[in-house]
Amino acid sequence: MTRQGGRTAHGRGGMQRFVCEQNIVHFERLLNETADPTVQNTVRALLASAKRQLALLNSAVSGADTTPFEQRRRQHGETDTIRQQFQPEFDASPHPYMLLDPGPGLLIVDINDAYAAATLTGRAEIVGRSLFEIFPDNPNDPLADGVSNLYGSLRIVGETGRAHAMAVQRYDIRDPDGVFVERHWQPINSPIHDTAGHLVYLLHHVEDVTAQVTGRP
Q1: How confident is the model at residue 7 (pLDDT cuts 50, 70, 90)?
Q2: Over residues 88-101, mean pLDDT
Q3: Are 176 and 158 within 8 A, CB to CB?
Q4: Where residue 35 falls among pLDDT bands split at 50, 70, 90?
Q5: Which pTM value belongs to this model?
Q6: Residue 9 — pLDDT band, cuts 50, 70, 90?
Q7: CB within 8 A of 183, min separation 6: which ones?
Q8: Could you read off the pLDDT of 130-167 as tens digits, one per residue?
Q9: How many whole angstroms separate alpha carbon 38 and alpha carbon 26?
């Protein structure tokens, strides 16, 4: 842990999370108290931004696994064996799947070909990188809530040890030129445990439902 300006990095992160949490409370209260459409639109954008920032901070610090780091490191001796068991089915599935490390950063462990095709990405480009580095919210949509809602679902899986189906979610993705394109998804997030019941992976499954939502092919 480094110390800069008399404060630890962890302390600064904790303060940032506290500020985000307080802002969310204030913006939600203000949204309920005002009837002015212009003010409501402004507050909704501020609320979405605060929730996104909180999700990014929590993702970086703890990921979706609430187990203390040292304990988690001791527990994960079976990860390679577990992965070998489901890897053939994972690779061959026609449905899009992404495998995540539930620890800090939510690093992408693997994706299958169907996921790469659906999200306009490639294994070599994104494996080993942070989930929200690769899939940020569309900066041109001030109300975008893909990051905060996805993190919330993954955190539920980490805390409960059970699969969680999200509501249909708009979550725009970048095309090969880096331009964001509209996409709507039906996501399901599931835990993968070792034989002792410890969380070792998160399995993210999505189906592209853009055509059904927008009515466009």
Answers
A1: very low
A2: 97
A3: no
A4: very high
A5: 0.89
A6: very low
A7: 170, 171, 172, 173, 208, 210
A8: 999 999 999 999 999 999 999 999 999 999 999 999 99
A9: 17
Neighbours of 114 (CB within 10 A): 19
The angle that helices 37-62 and 9-33 make with each other, rounded to 10 degrees, is 150
Helix axes 37-62, 146-160, angle to 10 degrees: 50
- The pair of three-digit structure tokens given for residue 32, joined into one six-digit string: 């309920």
SS3 per residue for the chain: CCEECCEEHHHHHHHHHHHHHHHHHHHHHHHHHCCCHHHHHHHHHHHHHHHHHHHHHHHHHHCCCCCCHHHHHHHHHHHHHHHHHHHHHHHHCCCCEEEECCCCCCEEEEECHHHHHHHCCCHHHHCCCEHHHHCCCCCCCCCCCHHHHHHHHHHHHHHHCCCEECCCEECCEECCCCCEECCEEEEEEEEEECCCCCEEEEEEEEEECHHHHHCCC
- Give me the amino acid identity at 104: P
Residue length, the chain?
217
Encoded tokens for 178: 């880096």
**Could you read off the pLDDT of 41-71 as tens digits, one per residue?**
999 999 999 999 999 999 999 999 877 655 5
Q: Phi-psi bin for 162: left (phi > 0), alpha (psi -120 to 50), beta? A: beta
